[in-house]
Amino acid sequence: MDPTDLGPGTATWLGGTGTILLGGFLWLRRFLSKDATDRAMDNADIGTVRRLNELLDSERLARKDAEARADQFAKERNELAAAVGRMEGKIEALTGAAQRGKAANRAAMVLSELLSRSDARAGELAKYADSARIAGLACNRFVDELSSTTNSARP
After folding, report:
1. How many domains does the chain have?
2. pLDDT cut 70: percent of the chain above it
3. What pTM was computed for the model?
4. What is the pLDDT of residues 15-42, one digit of tens each?
5. How far apart (Å, rounded) are the C-alpha atoms in residues 20 and 23?
6. Is residue 92 part of a domain?
7. 122: part of which helix (H) or strand (E)?
8. Which domain holds residue 92?
9. Exposed/middle/buried for 94, CB within 10 Å: 0-12, 13-18, 19+?
10. Could you report the per-residue pLDDT of 51-82, keeping only the tens digit for each?
11. Per the domain annotation, does 10 fall within a domain?
């Protein structure tokens, strides 16, 4: 069949139609591949947001636990400080009495031992509070690094 059988200019409009169809298919292919890429990026972003939320939730729980323990240790420290104050008063009262007898001297020794034990316990509490603070700061740095990594991965 000859293209001129359909009338004059048939070859031109057939060629133009073919070119338009080819261009349309190429555009559709490009559009659909771009849409698939966008969906993949959105899915990756959703996964990253979920992971960040999980990390933030675990960090919040760890922080609550550390704060509760720090509060408990602060309470114990305050109780020990009050006990030390009472013991110091008793030691001062017993110092004069210690000169009168060995029994008072023994009481002063017991109070001195209690004072040294309470001081050691206060040191342990301070070490724990320091380690809880360090863990909290490390967790904050981890979340900050993860956030900056996620933000830098976005186009």
Report:
1. 1
2. 75
3. 0.36
4. 777 788 888 878 777 777 777 767 777 7
5. 5
6. yes
7. helix 102-153
8. 25-120
9. buried
10. 888 888 888 888 888 888 888 888 988 888 88
11. no
